[in-house]
Amino acid sequence: MDKLINLKIDGRDVSVPAGTLVVDAAKLAGITIPVFCYHPKLEPVGMCRMCLVDIGRPAVDRATGQPMLNDDGTPKITFGPKLETACTTPVSEGMVVWGATEKVMAARKDVLEFLLTSHPLDCPVCDKGGECPLQNQTMAFGPGESRFLFDEKNHLEKHVPLGDLIYLDRERCIQCARCVRFSDQLAGDPVIGFYDRGRQLEIVTYSEPGFDSIFSGNTTDICPVGALTTVDFRFGARPWEMSSSSSICTHCSVGCNISYSVRREAKSKGRCVVKRVLPRQNEAVNEIWICDKGRFGYHYAENPERITQPLIRKDGKFVPASWEEAIKLVSSSFKAAGKKLVTLASGNLANEDLFALKQFSASLEGKAFHLPGMGGAEWTTRLGLTPGSNLGALGKGNAVLVFASDLHEEAPIWWLRLKAAAERGAMVIVAAARQTRLDKYASYTLRYEYGQEEKALKELIAGKSEAAKAFASAADAVIFYGSDGLDVQGSAAVAGLCAELLVKTDHFGRPNNGLVAVWPSANDQGAAELGWQPSADLVKDLTESVASYICAADPAGISAELAAALQQSGFVVVQDFFMTETARLANVILPAAAVMEREGTLVSAERRVQRFYAAVKPLGESKADYEIVTAIAAAMELKGFPASAAEIFAAIAASEPAFSGLSHEKLAQSEKQWPITGRPDAYFSGTVVENKDGLGVTLILSTTKGGSPTQVKLPELPKVEKGAWLAVPVTRLYDHGAALRGADSMQNRIGNRGLSLHPSDASKLGVKAGDTINLSLGNQELTTEVEVDPGQPQGVVLVRRSMGLSVSAPVEITLRVPAAAESEIR
Amino acid sequence: MSDLYLLRHRQTQGLNQLKTYIAEGGFDTWKKVVTKLKPEEVTQQVKDSGLRGRGGAGFPTGTKWSFLPNNIWPHYVVANADESEPGTFKDREILEMNPYQFLEGLMIASYAVQSHDSYIYFRGEFAQIATRFNERLAELTAQGLLGDKLFGTDYALRLHAHLGAGAYICGEETALLESIEGRLGQPRLRPPFPAVVGLFDKPTVINNVETLTNLPIILGKGVSYFRSQGTEKSPGTKIFCLSGRVKNPGNYELPLGTTFRELIFKHGGGILNDAKIKAIMPAGASSSLIPATDTALDTPMDYESVPALGAQLGSASVIILDETVNISDLVNSTVHFFKHESCGKCTPCREGTYWMAHITDRIVRGEASKADIDLLKAVAGQMQNKCFCALGEFSISAVLSGIQQFRADFEARVEK
To answer: Cβ–Cβ of B344/A49 closer than 8 Å?
Structure first.
């Protein structure tokens, strides 16, 4: 327990732990000391001089070392000759701080007058207006008029693109260095910095592409002025025109808390639309950050390719239909199929959808299967993280093993949190077949060859190596496992061995111990917790089905075999947003509502169940997945299907032990968090949204899920003929998946480099980064561009998932460099 | 004429050649220190000598060395050769004409705090001097005066010359450390102080070139010899850089406690064209302006006496102004200097120096009003006690003292 220090701030008695900075102590006591350069998540620098306060300390007699007293017996307080910066001064016993005196108010006025001398009068056209700390503090503390001559204002470049995503306005910049410090210290991306000096001090970017960081958007939240704005949102709307709606990002399984800023507008024909995404504070999940994919990946919902009406196949073409007609057709074919209905769901569905679907399938005695991108769910429900877990608490004496996962690409906020954990002294062990960005912060980097994952894990289980011993002796340990180079069975095998390691070293069943799957989808964990399991032979099940109900899944896009199997199914109903490969084979397509158009709950891979709320109305005629299921059930006169999401969740809580005691209401509960966020505190924490709509709850381990699942064997790598290549699937953050569809500012960063080669392999083939290459995969001929990565092993081609090349397991491919002449002939 | 401790090349030809320096007894003290003295003994002698930092702050050198904790290693010594204060040109003469005595001093300081790698930070404009120094360091290594196992002992020492890139702020000790570490030259937050967290986060001593050049004299010729010149509290000699409206500007090594009058009129030959002296700036552009009254002229130039005049002795870069100088022109010059050199880290200095420069420009162009003089004073006052480092604080010295003491000069330039 930290020792408490007692001091007085503006006459108020304050008691805070030793080491607290005066500015934070004041905030905790409800007193505002204005800041610009200070940010509670960054090292203080004392640069802007806005937080100058009068600090007095108990006087001590130099000779005797005794405290000096006034005549009335109270301690004599000596104030320094100069004001001190509250952000760099830790509290001390008996300190007296004055922020509300004339001297301090004059200092604040002076500093603001200085800042406003060359700050441009952009408020009417500046995005930050309305949520601008400089504006707010000028109103609170600043001078009403400037004595500076307008014509003498310093002019710098405006509209400077720092890469594709962020615009810099150098005139507005107040040189607080928050953006530089965030990128350097927190994000580990030293890609921006200061250049020149004095009044000409300006931000530049050193990377190519500019501001090359997947966390760049966060700097626009913490910038205290409108110097950094996103290309995505710039000139989009005024803060006071928008309302906030809380939600959860669905682009990976971290479950970052976000807020959609929405506005009703004329150009959307009076519809309320999403204008931007902001982080919502949840210190146990994403703190106050989100990655750029989450920040800019919301346009897919408004994309013109979105299916907004039910479609029925008639004479080989899709014809728009009414819900009545579509439901009628669907329910009659499902009724006819009965037990021969196969329902397929993915982790892209919310808990309410998954529960309703399972119930629906069960009431017809049909088969229901989970189509996950990764295996091992059965291990995570038994050995996953439990209540009280928080990656932010990992530090010295704790260990984290990251196995077969490139967190920077697959779950950026975990990368950020584990980097911070490593910097707090946690031992991070990264085991992978290639270099990843977490290696830099790892205490141990274990390299294995693709196909040798089992060997690598067995060595850790044997406990003889230094890394293994270190892991075993850690007080708390967590394992993150992924699917780098693995198919579903491969990742399931890995999960089983990770589970064995955790059991052997007794790192499960208590907070901050256990197994975390780096799922590709937002709610694979929820599907697992709700009892969904993959099919042992999905091709067979689909081939033999009389009808199939495919929700938020694209089996035809995974493999040709599954596509063929689907074509064998008598009647295919697809429920999704876009015309996927699977949807093309459907008899009926039902338009599903996107996450911001409905409510529900999701379970993150850390086993935290969190609520999301509707921000806008569903596009066109789309409906929430659970609503569609309920409507089909009603048309089939099936009983016991609750209509609202809250009621469905209540049914989940009643029937699933892991969810017992929970409710939508409970999930909506929040508590005070640190740092303090929210609109009036935008100067302190940035424009991150205060969380008033729920912090979520970590599920308990289900007691019914006892016993050990079957350990699966790691599949053998395919034999590769001479002249051919071994290709393995890997994940890239910026891909051609649905999430980033329509995010124009991201297109250059996404690019079209579907596979990656080691430099020596590239030069053997005669290609360099960015060149086009052809590959033969089975009987498919595909074309893509090449990336070159010196950190990957030689002799292996890394094929990126969701870039148009359907490689979901290690496979043999042949590569051909298109000759110039060839393309002419074609 | 009293002995020279520092500008000894003026008495002995060719002292900047190693073999001449050695022939004159050079590096005998270095050998004695390494082979016969304990590091604490060296520090004690320097404390006893009362030597004070010659870079401007006047802090007791021996005391500064004793701040280094003995449980954190390695230790570093950095020689601050970033001489950039306008009106200061003493270190340059030492570096060009008596370089080996400076090096011997740096080496002695390194031994005292047991640094094995010490640095010389040269201002960017000293590129040629720095290149020459690399040759000098190679010579010393070849002679066995630098390197491993010196004189058969376990002590090793390497010196590294580092070149700046033209920023006055890099003479500020923590900005200097940032520069050596390859970062933008902006001062660091203190505490922690360089004595505990300095170069590469290790305990570091930063000393001025002139300060270090005194050490072979103190350790070689003894504390009493060193103290035989100067005053009780400011012992030794000082190189006074005399410039401005005098007949004989230049470096003058004189005992501390010499009066301004003696420096200006005896050594400096008096004012150009025998005009009337008007003001003294004893510490370069960072000074307050002292009206050249008889009291002022008869004040001894030492660290104790000058503050009575409302200024600091600083680096003793004595700039003389006479009746032909309109102080507003002078202030315009100093303000532009600080505006140009401001690192930009803190709001008051970055914006304040820029603002002051615009006001002083208007004043000297005759485009200002009387209110602008008060505005200039207000802006300077607004910066006071708010800046992150001394650059900002000192940038207002000439402004405030100029308006206070010579307001008429400003008023002569503005519209009625």
So the answer is: no
- Chain pair A-B, CB pairs under 8 angstroms: 91
Backbone torsions φ then ψ of A636, nearest 5 degrees: -95, 5
Which of A83, A193, A199 is opposite residue B354, by nearest beta carbon?
A199
Segment A325-348 mean pLDDT: 96
Does the pLDDT value for residue A603 go beyond 70? Answer: yes
**Scanning every residue of chain B, which has its alpha carbon at the shortest distance from the alpha carbon of A175?**
B345
* Each residue's pLDDT tens digit, A467-523: 999 999 999 999 999 999 999 999 999 999 999 999 999 999 999 999 999 999 999
Nearest to A174 by CA among A137, A139, A223: A223
CA torsion sign for A146, A148, A150, A156 is: negative
Q: What's the mean pLDDT when you consider all of chain A?
A: 95
Cα A718 from Cα A812, distance rounded (Å): 7
CA-nearest residue to B391 within chain A is A198
Assigned CATH class of B237-322:
alpha beta
User: What letter would DSSP give residue A592?
Assistant: B
List of chain A residues whose C-beta atoms are within 8 Å of the C-beta of residue B353: 198-199
Q: pLDDT value at position A820?
A: 60
Same fold, B8-227 and B237-322: no
Taking CA–CA distances from A89, the nearest residue in chain B reads B191
ipTM for the assembly = 0.94
**CB B354 to CB A148 under 8 A?**
no
Cα gap B336→B344, rounded to integer Å: 14
What would be the CATH architecture of the domain defined by B8-227? 3-Layer(aba) Sandwich (3.40)
**CA A14-A19-A24 angle, 5° bins:** 55
CATH number, domain B327-414 = 1.20.1440.230
CB contact under 8 A, B340 and A114: no
The pLDDT-based confidence of A804 (bands split at 50, 70, 90) is confident
- Residue A644 pLDDT greater than 80, yes or no: yes
Q: Which residues of B touch A46 (CB under 8 A)?
A: 189, 388
List chain B domain ranges. Answer: 8-227, 237-322, 327-414
